[in-house]
Write a structure and sequence with these properties.
Aspartate Aminotransferase, domain 2; globular; alpha/beta; 376 residues; single chain; 3-stranded antiparallel β-sheet; 2 domains; 7-stranded mixed β-sheet; 14 helices
Length: 376
């Protein structure tokens, strides 16, 4: 059984000499943190997606925490989100004392089903956190319509979808706030990092304060002198460094190339696998263009664990994204029961992630396809 010469990871950063030199230049500058690069990075991100404001954070989870704070989610409030996501999409609600409500997914797009959002709204509902799972934009027109009807805040978890398109526009301007993540496997990387983009100035001001200890320059502080500052709320130290921001600026200049390569790989997988009995390939929502952060198939007949182990044995880093959030022991202890979202659970039982990132060669993609078909 031939192994590939090296382990083929499901995701991987793409760092070149220009990225490295940019970070070195910042290391030699006067500012390693709290300098000009963060504001520059925020501006290029805002310009890229077409938003008025962007606030950078040390990671995407911190950014989601900030968004829940800005939306004034608190004790007694309910927030609806998808169960098929990384735990941060739900944990951010718990950080501010809110209650997480899981709404089932659409079996075709794998994203949260707007009809299930509507079915789970109560008088306690404060916000919705749709997730652009795998880079596929959620059905934002439907979700925003529901939110408007019930006066809810929408925080889009776009951790997978920077550069993805929804009805002719970049993801980032449809929701009240949108989070993007810059972890190494994401569309671009700052090593760790995240951002909230918004067109709402009030949210913008709250986010700035929240990420830096709750400190702001009040009018009283300005009267006292340049050294004086006031902490007006209990914030956190969630700041991004200038080193991270410098890397992010360099990375963003290459995002179109990264996305093009991801889409080429997705097309290769789909062309080869859509006719294979027992495999269901992913589909895109109409009028969207996925960023293809992940390429996930469903194994209709095969033993998923066996296929996973066989692929790993030949150095192909298949994965599964994700365990339904409410299956985790923490959420089970809170009283969430299994079988809460039957569509999501049926989908999870069959799901398998294939490697996809800009560093993959055509030869590697063909090896993955051939091995998968062989094992099936």
């Amino acid at each position: 059984m031939r192994k590939y010469m090296h382990f083929i990871s499901y995701g991987c950063q793409s760092i070149d000499e220009e990225d490295i030199q940019t970070v070195i230049d910042t290391l030699r500058s006067p500012f390693l943190t709290q300098g000009p690069k963060v504001a520059e990075f925020e501006q290029v991100i805002a310009n890229f997606v077409g938003a008025k404001y962007a606030v950078a954070f040390c990671n995407g989870t911190a950014a989601l925490h900030g968004a829940c704070y800005a939306a004034e989610v608190g004790e007694g409030d309910e927030v609806i989100t998808s169960p098929i996501t990384f735990v941060a999409s739900a944990n951010c609600v718990r950080y501010v004392g809110g209650t997480v409500v899981f709404a089932d997914i659409d079996p075709v797009t794998y994203n949260i089903n707007p009809a299930q959002i509507q079915a789970n709204i109560t008088e306690k509902t404060k916000a919705i956190i749709p997730v652009d799972f795998t880079g596929q934009p959620a059905d934002m027109d439907e979700i925003m319509s529901i939110a408007k009807e019930h006066n809810l805040v929408v925080i889009e978890d776009g951790a997978h979808s920077l550069g993805a398109e929804y009805k002719g526009s970049k993801v980032g301007i449809q929701a009240d706030m949108t989070m993007f993540s810059f972890h190494p496997v994401k569309p671009i990387t700052t090593a760790e990092g995240g951002v909230i983009v918004t067109n709402n100035e009030d949210y913008y001001r709250k986010l700035l304060k929240f990420r830096s200890h709750g400190i702001e320059q009040t009018s009283y502080a300005q009267e006292q002198g340049g050294w004086y500052y006031e902490m007006t709320d209990l914030g956190y130290n969630y700041r991004m460094t200038d080193l991270q921001a410098a890397l992010g600026i360099s990375q963003l200049s290459k995002i179109d190339t990264f996305l093009q390569r991801r889409r080429e790989i997705a097309a290769m997988y789909t062309e080869a696998l859509q006719k294979v009995e027992g495999i269901q390939v992913p589909q895109q929502l109409e009028e969207t263009n996925s960023g293809w952060h992940l390429y996930m198939i469903q194994l209709e007949k095969a033993d998923r664990k066996l296929v996973f182990e066989e692929m790993r044995a030949v150095n192909i880093g298949v994965h599964v994204h994700y365990i339904p959030v409410y299956w985790h022991p923490y959420y089970q202890q809170l009283g969430y029961r299994k079988e809460l979202c039957p569509v999501a659970e049926t989908w999870y039982d069959k799901a398998l992630t294939l490697p996809i990132h800009p560093q993959l060669s055509n030869e590697e993609v063909e090896f993955i396809i051939n091995k998968l078909m062989h094992f099936l």
